[in-house]
Design brief:
alpha/beta, Rossmann fold, Hypothetical protein af1432, 2 domains, five-stranded parallel β-sheet, elongated
């Protein structure tokens, strides 16, 4: 269809009578800003209209093989013709014919014998409406593109803030920022394997890095303690879940809502023995169940003040052993099915000691 403001509009006239067709084409050719094509065979005209869309169709009612009502009914359902005006030309004053034409999608009628002045006036008005319609559609497309650009810019800024905040928390916890990026990627792989849609996968990827944002409220002495935590210190450390949930509560975006759910539930366990609420099974949000697997796995593979990094094979075995108790079995299965990709994610980075992450078989 024509979309440029001054582009010519295309008019199709279909009439099996050669004389009538020539008269209609001659009259229509005098319309400004319009190209005209006339065809006698409705089957050929239908194929032509599907191949080269028109902005106005004028069709005779009585024709062999396919009458005007059938033609309009068929063409009006084709993509791009939903709003194209159709004019029925007929000598028949039968009300039933006109009702059938309207039901088929006819916009207006012309009665034989054709009055040239009336024809030009009706066609001209319909073409003006069509041009205005196309310009509105073009404007709507432009606005949609602008909204998309603005939304993308906002999303990019939101993502940047999230990654910078998450990295700041990771540095405070003795890491380098690699842990959060690996957790994000592993969580995305699990979500993908579970069949979550692309939007959900992307949201989990961006929200997972904030799983430990609550550690900002935990004392440095506890975060960096090289030995086992005392019961009181363990309780204080577990408060990071509540703190993180509080920090992220009340967000206005889906991303922050998912980040809140992950921060609040990534230490819950499938069998109900986790914290802080002792949630069980599917009462734990799927985002929290996914993040739990990704977080524990990468934590095992990362060096911390209180432990050395585990080889991948040993960490993998620990995740598999936790299926049905610590972890959602479906998430563990998705983890296992993605094992080659997860190995690649881990081996692209390094542990906090600077050494490549290795499997026991490779050590």
């Amino acid at each position: 269809m024509s979309t440029a403001p001054n582009a010519p509009l295309h008019l199709l006239i279909v009439d099996d009578d050669a004389t009538n067709l020539a008269v209609l084409v001659a009259i229509a050719s005098k319309l400004p800003g319009c190209s005209v094509e006339g065809l006698r065979d409705p089957i050929t005209a239908l194929a032509r209209a599907k191949a080269a869309p028109f902005d106005l169709v004028i069709i005779d009612y009585r024709m062999p093989e396919m009458d005007g009502v059938e033609f309009i009914s068929t063409l009006s359902t084709e993509p791009g013709y939903e709003t194209v005006p159709f004019v029925m030309v007929t000598a028949d004053h039968d009300r039933a014919v006109r009702l059938a034409a309207i039901s088929a999608g006819a916009t207006d009628f012309l009665t034989k014998p054709i009055d040239a002045i009336e024809f030009r006036a009706r066609a001209s008005n319909l073409l003006k409406l069509r041009r205005a319609q196309l310009q509105l559609a073009e404007r709507a497309d432009w606005l949609a593109q602008e909204v998309h650009k603005a939304t993308s810019a906002i999303a990019a800024r939101e993502e940047e803030v999230i990654w910078r905040l998450a990295k700041a928390i990771e540095f405070r916890d003795g890491g380098t920022g690699e842990h959060i990026s690996r957790v994000a990627r592993v969580a995305q792989l699990i979500a993908e394997q579970l069949g979550l849609d692309a939007t959900a996968q992307r949201t989990i990827y961006l929200a997972a890095p904030l799983h430990d944002v609550g550690k900002i409220g935990v004392a440095d002495a506890i975060l960096s303690k090289p030995g086992r935590l005392s019961p009181d210190e363990t309780s204080a450390m577990r408060e990071h879940v509540r703190i993180g949930e509080t920090i992220l509560a009340g967000g206005s975006s889906d991303l922050i809502h998912v980040a809140e759910a992950i921060a609040a539930t990534h230490h819950e366990k499938w069998d109900g023995s986790g914290y802080p609420r002792g949630l069980k099974s599917t009462s734990i949000p799927i985002e929290g169940r996914i993040a739990a697997v990704a977080d524990v796995f990468d934590a095992l593979c990362s060096a911390r003040p209180y432990k050395a990094a585990w080889p991948l094979d040993r960490a993998r075995a620990e995740i598999l052993a936790g299926s049905g108790s610590h972890f959602d079995p479906a998430c563990v299965a998705a983890f296992e099915q993605n094992w080659p990709k997860i190995c690649a994610v881990l081996n692209q980075g390094t542990t906090t000691t600077g050494e490549p992450v290795r499997t026991e078989s490779a050590a």
